[in-house]
Design brief:
heterodimer; A: 329 residues; alpha/beta; four-stranded antiparallel beta sheet; 12 strands; B: 340 residues; eight-stranded mixed beta sheet; 12 helices; globular
């Protein structure tokens, strides 16, 4: 068994809104291994981000973790008190958000923001601190770091801001980094630069990286294992190659078929319907209203996530009866 | 060889053009921030000498990164902003000149031919209007139909874009992003335009919904014989939907070709880098890793010569001193680079 770094078991995170209880993450279990690149893929509202926020215990109100365990290095993160948790954030687990212009504080210089992180967990002299900040900025490839560290976030371009955000996340050498759509707001050429940077840093610092994205291209390029989420549930976990080669869940297959490819022209298959309302999700398998293979059983019993071949899990009653080969193209 | 104007015109005669853009230029002034005085200190070169044509019933795409002038070009074509110089010719008439002297009626006549679908369906629908009001508003403005008879037409339009009759009485907030974009498309189709500008119509939508909208646009184009100007930064969707593509960089077209030709045989170093940068959804497909360094320079002081030269690996002295002309290398494949 490969080394498990973080294990999520039966996680349930609900949002208690006026309209009702939104079951954003409902019974999600998967593990993250040491030093791996895991992809977390799904459409908006599938619960990818809420899963990451749950691990860090920074769920915004009115959300709450209702049930489940998050085991990190044999400790359940949900049992820690706030002070212990604060220590975990940053030094052990860090996160990069989608929009760098709103995740950096506009009224402080880059230097101040990085210094805050460093001094919050370690006592450093002024000189040491400055040295570390320069090291970090050089690490993420910001030119003329000495001058630029005294500038404010608005003086940086989008790509450069995301580099600063990465520097901030990596300041304390975490062992696990969540990257929540880190390149969605960036241009393609800049996206490629930032992805390269993340991959290099991951190797260099030997940390595990969780890429949260809806872009199948990034998944294919960056990850070794993938967790596919739909409407708050995990529907498939597999090695990246297996997932693209032979998806077992109908949703995964449709998702792959709906993505246009640059290297060829193909007819785009359409996933009928819309993502369900999570206040009253469909009974049984949550994908059944959009699934052409749905049977009576799918409308009543939610399927369990079962391991059908080594490292390939699927949550579908009919996975064995349907042949999805070729549907991904 | 450089195509002279005459040669271009002969070429035009072969295929029927719906729209022709000639040497379009738009500079936005930048003012100094005085309290009492307002002085122009610089210019943003948003669109700088852009020429292309769109044939009847064709999907023509413009791709480029943010700030390259794609959307400004679209707004210039629709005369939503006035160009610094240049011509937009529709059915043989220079509409820019015409707009300066035209009355309201003439402007409406022209606008009826061309409609636009915007990027963000959350921002482009009035939250206080029902879908029926939204879709029928253009019918009233253009005086196409009496208020009383509009209902039938609205139902027909909604069906055409894959919505139901009962949706007409609802408000935009009751719809998902994909459905909202369908409403926007229905509104654009209401006046039976010949030409639609779709400005990043799918970039704010989810992956599974994107395919629905792209397929819808392709179907409508085929069935209604529309010409479409498709503007996007997403190269994969451009390859899906368009027949010809122009690649823009810092306000200029650097390459233009038939879609398959452009993607299979990109000639401009920028196009190559752009295609290279897109991750392909297949773990077996390996991108060759030649990364573009640096970022897009400021359009206030664009680089001299070829605007791409500071980021280009092939740049020579010539590129820094002279602007490369857009020349036809093979049939219908135009490139602005000295080193092809």
């Amino acid at each position: 068994m490969p080394d498990t770094l973080l294990k999520i078991e039966g996680l349930k995170t609900y949002f208690y809104t006026e309209a009702g209880i939104v079951k954003a993450v409902d019974n999600v279990s998967f593990e993250i291994r040491k030093g791996e690149s895991l992809g977390l893929v799904g459409e908006s509202g599938s619960g990818k981000t809420v899963t990451a926020l749950s691990v860090l215990r920074i769920i915004p109100k009115p959300g709450r973790i209702v049930d489940g365990k998050i085991l990190f290095k044999d400790k359940n993160l949900l049992d820690l008190n706030e002070k212990e948790m604060q220590h975990v954030r940053g030094t052990e687990i860090a996160i990069i958000f989608q929009d760098p212009s709103s995740s950096l504080n506009p009224v402080y210089t880059v230097e101040t923001q990085l210094r805050d992180i460093l001094t919050a967990h370690e006592s450093l002299s002024k000189e040491e601190c400055k040295k570390r900040i320069l090291e970090l900025l050089n690490l993420v490839g910001i030119p003329e770091a000495e001058i630029r560290m005294r500038e404010f976030p608005h003086q940086f371009s989008g790509g450069m801001k995301q580099r600063v955000a990465i520097a901030r996340a990596l300041a304390l050498h975490p062992t696990l980094l969540f990257a929540d759509e880190p390149t969605t707001s960036l241009d393609v050429t800049i996206q490629a630069q930032v992805l390269d940077l993340l991959e290099n840093l991951k190797q260099e610092m030997n940390m595990a990286l969780v890429m949260i994205t809806h872009d199948m291209g990034i998944i294919a390029k960056m990850t070794t294992r993938v967790v596919v989420m739909y409407a708050g549930n995990v529907c498939e976990i597999a090695k990246t190659e297996d997932l693209f080669e032979q998806p077992l869940h109908p949703y995964t297959a449709l998702l792959l078929a709906a993505v246009p490819r640059l290297d060829m022209r193909k007819t785009l298959k359409v996933i009928p319907g819309n993502i369900p309302n999570l206040i009253e999700p469909p009974a049984g398998c949550r994908f059944h209203p959009r699934c052409k293979y749905a049977t009576e059983k799918c409308t009543q019993t939610p399927p369990d996530l079962i391991e059908v071949s080594p490292d390939h899990f699927v949550a579908c009653h009919n996975w064995n009866d349907i042949n999805l080969r070729g549907e991904g193209n | 060889m450089t195509l002279t104007l005459e040669e271009r015109e002969i070429r035009m005669a072969d295929d029927k053009n719906f729209l022709e853009v000639k040497n379009l230029v738009k500079y936005f002034p930048v003012y100094s921030s005085g309290i009492l005085t307002k002085k122009e200190v610089a210019k943003v070169h948003a669109v700088d000498d852009v020429s292309f044509d769109i044939k009847k019933q064709e999907v023509f795409a413009i791709v480029g990164e943010s700030g390259c002038g794609k959307t400004t070009t679209a707004r210039l074509i629709l005369n939503l902003i006035e160009p610094t110089s240049g011509q937009v010719i529709v059915d043989g008439e220079n509409v820019i000149e015409k707009f300066k002297s035209a009355g309201k009626k003439e402007k409406l006549h022209y606008r009826r031919k061309m409609q636009m679908i915007f990027q963000n369906p959350y921002g482009s629908l009035d939250p206080r209007m029902t879908v029926c009001d939204i879709v029928s508003e253009p019918l009233t403005i253009h005086g196409i139909m009496e208020k009383k008879c509009q209902c039938e037409r609205v139902y027909e339009l909604l069906k055409r874009v894959g919505l139901e009759e009962y949706h007409a009485e609802r408000y935009p907030h009751e719809f998902s992003g994909g459905q909202r974009q369908r409403i926007c498309i229905a509104r654009a189709l209401a006046v039976e335009p010949e030409f639609i500008i779709a400005d990043e119509p799918v970039s704010s939508l989810d992956v599974s919904i994107r395919a629905q909208i792209l397929n819808l646009l392709a179907d409508l184009q085929k069935n209604m014989g529309l010409s479409i100007l498709y503007i996007s930064h997403d190269l994969s969707s451009v390859r899906q939907i368009s027949q010809r593509v122009a690649v823009m960089y810092l306000g200029q077209i650097v390459e233009q070709a038939d879609t398959d030709e452009l993607f299979d045989n990109p000639l401009h170093p920028y196009t190559q880098a752009l295609i290279e940068a897109v991750p392909i959804p297949d773990p077996k497909a390996k991108n060759i890793r030649a990364r573009l360094k640096g970022e897009v320079p400021s359009p206030i002081n664009p680089p001299k010569g070829c605007r791409f030269n500071p980021r280009c690996s092939k740049a020579t002295k010539e590129c820094i001193e002279q602007k490369p002309p857009l020349i036809e290398v093979t049939k219908n494949h135009f490139v602005a680079c000295f080193h092809t």
